[in-house]
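Components:
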Amino acid sequence: MKRLWAWAALIVGLLYFILPLLGMTNFSLKMRRGEYSFDAYAKVFADSRFHETFTYSVWMALLTIVFGIVLVVPTAYWVRLKLPFLRPYVEFITLLPLVIPAIVTVFGYIRLYNTSSWLPLTGSSIGTDVLLMFGYATLSLPYMYRAVDTGLRSIDIKTLTEAAQSLGAGWATIIGRIILPNVTVAVMSGAFVTFAIVLGEFTMAALLNKPAFGPYMQLLGANRAYEPAALAVIAFTITWACLGLMQLISRLQKTPQTPV
Amino acid sequence: MSIDTADRPAVAAPARPVRRLPLHWLGILPFTAFVLLFLILPTMKIVIGAFQTPEGGLTLANVAGLFTPSILAAFWISIKISFASALLGCLIGFAMAAAVVLGGLPRAIRGPLLTFSGVASNFAGVPLAFAFLATLGPVGLVTAFLRSELGLDLRVLGFNILSFWGLTITYLFFQIPLMILIITPALDGLKREWREAASILGATNFQYWRLVAFPILMPSLLGTLALLFANAFGAVATAIALTGSSLNIVPILLFAQIRGDVLGDPHLGYALAFGMIVVTGLANAVYIWLRARSERWLK
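Structure:
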């Protein structure tokens, strides 16, 4: 009896998740009247705006990941090594982007860094790119920091640091050649989440007027019928691939550590 | 000279802790600078701006400006949608998690379900809106199926994807998985001994749930409700892609306000954004407080 209820709850729930995925896939294949075809996908892939915005977002994602690693790994390492009493505070700060809606943050950027301010980042195209990348970095901060911090927990950073220091290594060498390789798996999982977030992000890019993938999807959705469904399938596949890879990697990392 | 350097450590030793202290703090300087410039200061700017006149003087007029019927209505609809999707998300997510953890289902289901939840809880934004338009929209899969096979016309029944319920149902797509992700560890934390102890004392299954399991899970459940609420309240992209600007909810209003900055009143925008921070901030404070309480039991 209990098992019956359990199956019912699970199946009804899963139906809710499967139907939209089925719906969008089905719809994306129906561009040609009366038969299934990949016309909508062909249309999307042939659109030069698709290539431009997609490439732009991929670049932004990669830059954000690099910046995130450079910012987060040394910080998390340093806090654990030298300032452990700060950990709860730093952790709280890294969770703030989950509390403050992205639209509020970007509104603050526009007001704080406009052309007449002390740091006119929105005045030039490159400046806005940089600002957008910083915005993405804040969005991914909760995931990146937690991933790296968890990764650092599993290694003995104190001993590694002392060993490296007694062999004459400086801080850059320690972080770049000792710590980073030891937390690669954690960094990778943070990187995949960042990639997925940046690729689909809409609000920040739209309000900063940047030709990113998210605003392009929204624009296409407002003007076309079948292509948006194809785009949704593509976006879902990419998100799934990123987060699936992340799960796979974190599972690979866990196996050697927990013997049970 | 060499004697001099050999002597120096003894002399310099007391001075060392003093010199070391600032170097310690230098290590988190880049992080502090980044967080200040791109997270704290922009938010402060909004909060302060909400209480400023265009000339820079202090005023409560902007916040008072929120209490006009149309803006209050927007906040009210936003709160209702967020609450409805959070509540339903909690209930359905709890049912699914409980089914997998406690319902005696094969353990092989659990891993894929959690993986899928991880993906789906991140699948918000523009594509999600497209997926639901293709499913429950006027010519969507489910709409067409119900019409042709069962003779049910959703539109005649009063359902519209660009409405309160349409948005709520769409939001559930990322709310339910988030609930599953958060509540599964809590359900795992229910110890078998508690159930055994309860049944030895003669408790029925219902009594066990009402008197033991539910009170222990209560902080987790309420905390997650608050988190889901904040999650839905800040969602912009899905709403805009789904409804354009036809539905009067706070994030869309703010988006339009920022877009039309040149003509509109930026200080009303500040006040709107400030209102959003207050709502999500309160919800998250509740979440953090309740999570701390629930961790006492679920170790």
